[in-house]
């Protein structure tokens, strides 16, 4: 049964439980809701929660555990000779899953009957012909062992899905029956619902934390695998970036790190002054009518897709910088450059700085302004000596948020700065960043057991450490300056 159907049925049972629980509570009070301990809606919500939440929790856990159990059983069917020939057991399992999906598509479309799918063993030509009839390309060579493993994978998946649906439906029904039986006039439904909502909130926060931990651990494990294949000294201190899946790769981080910091620095040079000055003007000088027009227009920049910014850099900004600055000054002849990506990225970051800074400046107490004016200070002196120092922690947070956004940008760099990894001070030369190379190393037909593919995880972990450092720095600055204005 499709997952969407399971979710829909559980939600329908929850809605039915809500109606039944509410009606039972009112009936237990003789039709007078004033005699109930809680409002009628709480009784219905209690039944709905006990129907939906346990079933969905079991469904989520089942969806995470079932693929691991099936792959462990199917992996044991694959001979070591095939694994050694392919080079990785994970690649063999990828073929198994792909063939299993092809069998599912073929059976669903009628190209293969169910009994035919089970009887296929060694005649790979016939399998290719039948699957090709429904548009499923097997790609590489499929051995009889892989085919048998795919059939077992498909059978176990179907059995597991049926068992999952049955368990979820039974659990939802039991939850509905149990909570419905407990519903009566004196039942403290409001307390139960509030405790349940509190538990859901705690669970949501725990999932967010565990997701972060899972992301970090996944990058750490793959990074350790990379450093088992490639020396960490060459990665962190290497000055060349020349990946080659045929061997002899040079995977130095410094050229990519230099390009990332160079592009981000130019972007901040553009976005921070413009965004901060715009925020000061809108908060302290602009009238209500001008502010109501200017702020939405600036914030529109944040809603433009980055691919549009990349095309703007490729078609407009890059050729303009090349024709009017780079070539006349003898600094280069390419429209793809650090300056192109930095300027366009800076334009994209203006609303991040201006909107947050504007909100922070407006949050400065009016009493500080009145005190400054009472001492004879002008408006500009008040802005420089009172408002900006008071708003400095928030402004620093806005700048660091823009810096994190700049470090993680990809599309603008791909289209505006090119893909050349080099160490150069010339801002009109093409360079690249860490994020661009992460995409490049994981795109295409890559062997995930090779250092050229695993290096993407080491690059991702490096970006994570950089952004974490920016957040720690922002927290330090906020705490240091906040004490002066409390």
Uncertain segments of ≥5 residues (pLDDT<50)? 120-140
What share of the residues does DSSP label as strand, in percent? under 5%
- Proportion of helical residues: over 70%
The SSE order reads HHHHHHHHHEEHHHHHHHHH
* Total count of strands: 2
Largest sheet: 2 strands, antiparallel
Strand order of the largest sheet: 1-2
Structural class, from helix and strand content?
Answer: mainly alpha
Mind explaining what this structure looks like?
By secondary structure, the chain is mainly α. 77% of the residues lie in helices and 1% in strands. The chain has 18 helices and 2 strands. It has helices at residues 3-28, 40-75, 80-86, 89-108, 114-119, 124-133, 144-182, 189-229, 232-237, 254-285, 288-303, 306-329, 338-362, 366-374, 379-407, 411-416, 434-441, 451-482; strands at residues 241-242, 250-251. Strands 1-2 form a two-stranded antiparallel sheet. A hairpin with a 7-residue loop joins strand 1 and strand 2 (250-251). The two termini are 59 Å apart.
Keywords summarizing the entry:
two-stranded antiparallel sheet; 77% helix
What's this model, at a glance?
The chain has 486 residues and is mainly alpha-helical. Helix content is 77%, strand content 1%.
Blueprint of the fold:
Elements: H1 3-28, H2 40-75, H3 80-86, H4 89-108, H5 114-119, H6 124-133, H7 144-182, H8 189-229, H9 232-237, E1 241-242, E2 250-251, H10 254-285, H11 288-303, H12 306-329, H13 338-362, H14 366-374, H15 379-407, H16 411-416, H17 434-441, H18 451-482
Antiparallel strand pairs: 1-2
């Amino acid at each position: 049964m499709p997952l969407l159907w399971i979710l829909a049925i559980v939600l329908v049972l929850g809605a039915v439980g809500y109606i039944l629980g509410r009606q039972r509570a009112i009936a237990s009070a003789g039709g007078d809701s004033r005699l109930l301990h809680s409002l009628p809606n709480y009784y219905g919500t209690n039944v709905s929660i006990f129907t939906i939440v346990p079933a969905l929790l079991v469904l989520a856990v089942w969806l995470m555990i079932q693929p691991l159990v099936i792959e462990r059983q199917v992996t044991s069917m694959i001979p070591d000779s095939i694994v050694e020939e392919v080079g990785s057991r994970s690649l063999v399992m990828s073929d198994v899953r792909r063939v299993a999906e092809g069998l599912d598509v073929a059976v669903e479309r009628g190209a293969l009957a169910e009994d035919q799918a089970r009887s296929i063993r060694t005649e790979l030509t016939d399998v290719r012909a039948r699957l090709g009839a429904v548009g499923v390309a097997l790609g590489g060579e499929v051995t009889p062992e892989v085919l048998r493993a795919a059939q077992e994978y498909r059978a176990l998946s179907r059995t597991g899905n049926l068992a999952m649906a049955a368990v979820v439906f039974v659990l939802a029904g039991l939850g509905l029956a149990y909570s419905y039986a407990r519903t009566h006039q004196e039942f403290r439904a409001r307390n139960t619902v509030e405790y349940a909502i509190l538990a859901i909130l705690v669970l949501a926060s725990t999932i967010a934390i565990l997701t972060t931990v899972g992301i970090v651990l996944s990058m750490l494990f793959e990074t350790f695998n990379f450093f088992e294949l490639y020396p960490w000294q060459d990665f962190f201190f290497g000055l060349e970036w020349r990946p080659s899946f045929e061997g002899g790769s040079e995977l130095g981080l410094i050229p990519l790190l230099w390009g990332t910091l160079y592009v981000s620095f130019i972007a901040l040079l553009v976005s921070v002054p413009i965004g901060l000055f715009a925020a000061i003007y809108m908060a302290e000088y602009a009238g209500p009518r001008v502010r109501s027009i200017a702020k939405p227009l600036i914030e529109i920049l944040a809603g433009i897709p980055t691919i549009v910014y990349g095309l703007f850099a490729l078609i407009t900004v890059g050729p303009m910088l090349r024709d009017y600055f780079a070539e006349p000054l003898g600094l280069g002849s390419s429209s793809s450059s650090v300056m192109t990506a930095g300027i366009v990225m800076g334009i994209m970051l203006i609303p991040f700085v201006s909107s947050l800074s504007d909100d922070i400046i407006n949050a400065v107490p009016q009493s500080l302004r009145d005190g400054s004016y009472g001492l004879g200070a002008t408006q500009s002196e008040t802005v420089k000596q009172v408002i900006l120092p008071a708003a400095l922690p928030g402004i620093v947070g806005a700048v660091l948020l823009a810096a994190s956004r700049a470090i993680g940008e990809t599309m603008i760099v791909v289209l505006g700065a090119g893909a050349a990894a080099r160490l150069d001070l010339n801002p009109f030369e093409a360079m690249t960043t860490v994020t661009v190379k992460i995409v490049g190393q994981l795109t295409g037909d890559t062997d995930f057991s090779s250092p050229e593919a695993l290096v993407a995880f080491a690059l991702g972990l490096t970006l994570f450490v950089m952004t974490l450092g920016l957040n720690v720095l922002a927290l330090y600055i906020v705490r240091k300056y906040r004490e002066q204005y409390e």
